[in-house]
């Protein structure tokens, strides 16, 4: 079970930069882009199994130092971008740690098998009745 987002907040590091998004002249002078960094291996919130799963599942999103990097620059406000980056981060963790339900193999019922075979037989008879007629 994944802990709430609040548990991760002390372990998150933030870095700001100038955004390329909306904002007019504001873009040129305000650092509204937010980069969120999270060191998976050093986390005290996650257990070893969860850390290993994250390192496998999110390998393409990790830096060479093993940091998960999430950026947000959709909004003009740095505060809003920080919130959006936190949401993206938590969604990434949730998806990566989700274990799909194991599929149980089932057999078709006897009635379904019988019905399928009868249908095949009927279709075969229909085809075998086609063809040349001798007089």
Automatic annotation (TrEMBL):
InterPro entries from the UniProt entry: Pep_chain_release_fac_I
Disordered: region residues: 95-135
Source species, domain of life: Bacteria
EC nos: 3.1.1.29
Basic residues bias spans: 96-125
GO molecular function: peptidyl-tRNA hydrolase activity; ribosome binding; translation release factor activity
Record has Hydrolase as a keyword: yes
Entry keyword annotation includes Hydrolase: yes
UniProt domain Prokaryotic-type class I peptide chain release factors: residue ranges: 18-34
Pfam family, one: RF-1
Bias (Basic and acidic residues): 126-135
GO biological process assignments: rescue of stalled ribosome
NCBIfam families xrefs: PRK09256.1 (NF006718)
Protein name per its UniProtKB record: Aminoacyl-tRNA hydrolase
């Amino acid at each position: 079970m994944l802990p709430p987002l609040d548990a991760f907040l002390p372990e998150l590091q933030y870095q700001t930069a100038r955004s390329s998004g909306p904002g007019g002249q504001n873009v040129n002078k305000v650092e509204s882009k937010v980069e969120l960094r999270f060191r998976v291996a050093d986390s005290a919130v996650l257990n070893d199994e969860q850390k290993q799963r994250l390192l496998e599942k999110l390998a393409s999103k990790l830096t060479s130092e093993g940091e998960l990097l999430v950026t947000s620059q959709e909004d003009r406000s740095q505060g809003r971008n920080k919130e959006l980056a936190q949401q993206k981060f938590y969604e990434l963790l949730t998806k990566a740690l989700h274990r799909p339900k194991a599929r149980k193999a089932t057999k078709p019922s006897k009635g379904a098998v019988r019905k399928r075979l009868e249908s095949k037989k009927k279709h075969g008879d229909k085809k075998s009745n086609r063809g040349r007629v001798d007089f």
